[in-house]
Every structure is written in structure tokens, then in C-alpha cells.
TrEMBL record:
Superkingdom of origin: Bacteria
Record protein name field: Cysteine desulfurase
Entries under PANTHER family matching the protein: CYSTEINE DESULFURASE, CYSTEINE DESULFURYLASE FAMILY MEMBER
A GO molecular-function annotation: cysteine desulfurase activity
Gene: iscS
EC numbers, comma separated: 2.8.1.7
Cofactor annotation: pyridoxal 5'-phosphate
The reaction(s) this protein catalyses: (sulfur carrier)-H + L-cysteine = (sulfur carrier)-SH + L-alanine
Length: 387
């Protein structure tokens, strides 16, 4: 991207904060030993102390003990470990039923589908027009065979925030484990696991201006979880492999740099963008909840025009946005999330997501909305779908 480009796809990836890189740098060039060599030489001790320190800082931000936080390669691996690990541990002893929602991100949905092929039964809960899970429907779906409920904290596309406290209480009352994907809400919304009984929680660094390739999975004490990979005994014998110490350091630093002042600034830009789009551009629909929404998320469907065309024209004007989720952007399929909230083909294919980050300004958001208005007006003039 050139200096004039405006990046508004922070849900897919964020620019690394220079302060994060500064914190990581010594563990590439000075203390680069592996943590498991702590008993052999001093640099190994330093590496182990750094890893433990990063783990403790992240655990503290979530309200759990360091022993309950394991590092992974990112949210995809974390959610795979959660679903498949529970299935492996409890599939023969308790039951083979899992519950999730239709609008989950792909790591959860594809893990659930993989488990179906292995003989597990999966209930995919529907959601309402704003993307909320029906809590009564959830409670009715839980049976004596249910071993896990996996419902995200916030949606990756439309930004709707679920009532995870209520969901966790339902699961606890029914003696069912609860996994929550908090990839897009960690440090953007309050998550206190000392108060909310969530058994497994997925988090990642790439959405909060941290490094790519590092994430975490909270595994609360007493949670039964099978081991998916064989190898060493790293990460409390739950996830073997060479520890990514620079990544862990960067993750912890990135998490600490997010504060409420920044989140409030994102909310203000979000609300400003939504207001302008809904009031200045005709024939648009806001996707997701207008109230219980991620601070950084704007998702709108533009009628009578394809979202792919909008993104391409915006790119030519220097604005990077996405249509549907980042994973869907190369697919001819419409967004499963928009379909899930009752949207039709036109709404699914006409959705545009602007996701805001630390380095975006109100001036950039204004310029993007102005460009959106111009692009949609021009495209509708030649659209075969109507005006």
C-alpha cells in the first residue's frame, strides 16, 4: 500500500505497533534460546522467564491463572484444539453432541463439520435478524449427550456481541463445557473469566496490532481436553512444539497497549461512519446490532450493486475494505453470516465491511464514506439489478 492508501480491513489483520516490535526484537537477536533449555544454560533460563512473563500478563488481563493459558499459532489452532480436544476427551465417555451457531467463524464451523464426519452430532443454532443466538433455543438443544457449546463473543463480519455471561451460566447449569471465540473482542470488550464461567476461550494477537502467527487458548482448570498433536511436553503438555517466544512477548505487549480511550475513539468513528452511510446513501441496510456491536465494526449492504465491485472501485481510489469476511473475499459464495441473519442473495453479495484500527483517523473514515457514496452512485447507474 502506498502512503495515500487507507486501510480499513483491521478485522483481517492489523498493522504491527512499533512498540510491539521493539518488545519482540531482543528475542530474535539476543535471547533466542528455547524455553525448554532452561536447565542447560542461562540464555534458556532468560527465555523461559520471558515466556512465563508474557503468559502471566495475558492471563492476568483475562482473569485466569498462568497455567490456564496456552500459546498457539493463532485463533484457527485455538478453536480446533478446543472443539476437537473436547471431542477426543469426552466423545467416548459422555456423549457425541456439540452445539454451535450458524454464523461462527470458519475455525469453529469447519471443526464442527469435521467432527460430523467422525460421527459426532452437531446442532447449528439459528440467529435472529441482528445475529443474536436465542438463549431458550440453546437451552432446549442441550441434552445429556452434549459435551460442548461453542458460541462466539462477537461476530467477525457484522460485529454483533453475544451475551456470553448468560450462555456460560446456561452451560454451567447443564454441566456442559462452553467454548467462546473471542478473536475480535479480546481487549476491545470486557472479558473477565474470574467472573464469567467460560471453560475454553480463543484469543489472537493479529486483531490488536500484535504479530501474526501467535494466539492463545484459555483452558480452565478441570477442563478435560484431549491432545491433538504428538511431540514434546510444551504448554503444560497440551500443545507440543517449539515455543514462539518473540510472538508471545509481542502478544502480551499488544494486549497491554489497548486501552478504553482507544476503544472509545473507535466507537465514535464507527458511529459516525454508520450515521453518514445510512443518512447519505440510499438503499442501504445495516448488518448486525445497532447497539451491541464491536467498537471497530461497520457492516452495511448496498442494494442494486455487488460488494465485489464496490471493493475493487474503492481499492482503485486507495481504500482497502472487505466484502463479507476476509476468508470469503475470494469465494463466489455469499456471506454465510448475512444468510444466517435472514439476508437474501442480493444482501449477502452487496455487503461491505469497514473494520477500524488504531491508525485510522476520522478524516480517513469521512473520506471512505464519501468514496462509498460516489462509487455506489456510479455503479448503480450501470447496474442490471436496478436503481
Amino acid at each position: 500500500m502506498n502512503d495515500k492508501s487507507v486501510y480499513l480491513d483491521n478485522a483481517a489483520a492489523t498493522r504491527l505497533d512499533e512498540r510491539v516490535l521493539e518488545a519482540m526484537s531482543p528475542y530474535f537477536f539476543q535471547t533466542y534460546a528455547v524455553a525448554t533449555s532452561e536447565f542447560a544454560y542461562s540464555q534458556g533460563i532468560e527465555a523461559k522467564e520471558a515466556l512465563d512473563g508474557a503468559r502471566g500478563r495475558l492471563a492476568g488481563l483475562l482473569g485466569v491463572t498462568p497455567e490456564e493459558f496456552i500459546f498457539t499459532s493463532g485463533d484457527t489452532e485455538s478453536s480446533n484444539i478446543a472443539l476437537k480436544g473436547v471431542a477426543k476427551a469426552l466423545g467416548k465417555s459422555k456423549g457425541r453432541h456439540i452445539i454451535t451457531s450458524r454464523i461462527e467463524d470458519f475455525p469453529v464451523l469447519q471443526s464442527a463439520k469435521a467432527l460430523e464426519k467422525d460421527g459426532f452430532s452437531v446442532t447449528y443454532l439459528g440467529v435472529d435478524g441482528e445475529g443474536f443466538v436465542d438463549l431458550d433455543q440453546l437451552e432446549e438443544a442441550i441434552t445429556g449427550e452434549t459435551i460442548l457449546v461453542s458460541v462466539q463473543h462477537s461476530n467477525q463480519e457484522i460485529g454483533t456481541v453475544q451475551d456470553i455471561e448468560a450462555i456460560s451460566k446456561i452451560c454451567r447449569s447443564r454441566n456442559t463445557l462452553f467454548h467462546c471465540d473471542a478473536t475480535h473482542s479480546f481487549r476491545r470488550l470486557p472479558i473477565d473469566l474470574s467472573r464469567v464461567p467460560i471453560d475454553l476461550l480463543t484469543v489472537s494477537a493479529h486483531t490488536i496490532h500484535g504479530p501474526k502467527g501467535i494466539g492463545g487458548l484459555v483452558v480452565r482448570k478441570g477442563t478435560t481436553l484431549g491432545k491433538l498433536m504428538d511431540g514434546g511436553f510444551q504448554e503444560f503438555d497440551r500443545r507440543p512444539g517449539l515455543e514462539n517466544i518473540p510472538g508471545a512477548i509481542g502478544f502480551a505487549r499488544a494486549a497491554e497497549l489497548v486501552d478504553e480511550a482507544e476503544n472509545d475513539r473507535l466507537r465514535a468513528m464507527r458511529d459516525h461512519a454508520i450515521w453518514r452511510i445510512l443518512n447519505e446513501i440510499p438503499s442501504v441496510t445495516l448488518n448486525g446490532s445497532p447497539v451491541d456491536r464491536l467498537p471497530q465494526n461497520v457492516n452495511v449492504s448496498f442494494h442494486f450493486v455487488e460488494g465485489e465491485s464496490i471493493t475493487l472501485h474503492l481499492d482503485m481510489r486507495g481504500f482497502a475494505v472487505s466484502t463479507g469476511s476476509a476468508c470469503f473475499s475470494r469465494s463466489l459464495q455469499g456471506s454465510h453470516v448475512i444468510y444466517g441473519i435472514g439476508g437474501d442473495h442480493e444482501r449477502a453479495h452487496g455487503s461491505i465491511r469497514l473494520s477500524l484500527g488504531r491508525y485510522n483517523t476520522l478524516e480517513e473514515v469521512d473520506a471512505a464514506v464519501t468514496a462509498l457514496a460516489e462509487v455506489t452512485r456510479e455503479l448503480r447507474k450501470i447496474s442490471p439489478l436496478g436503481k
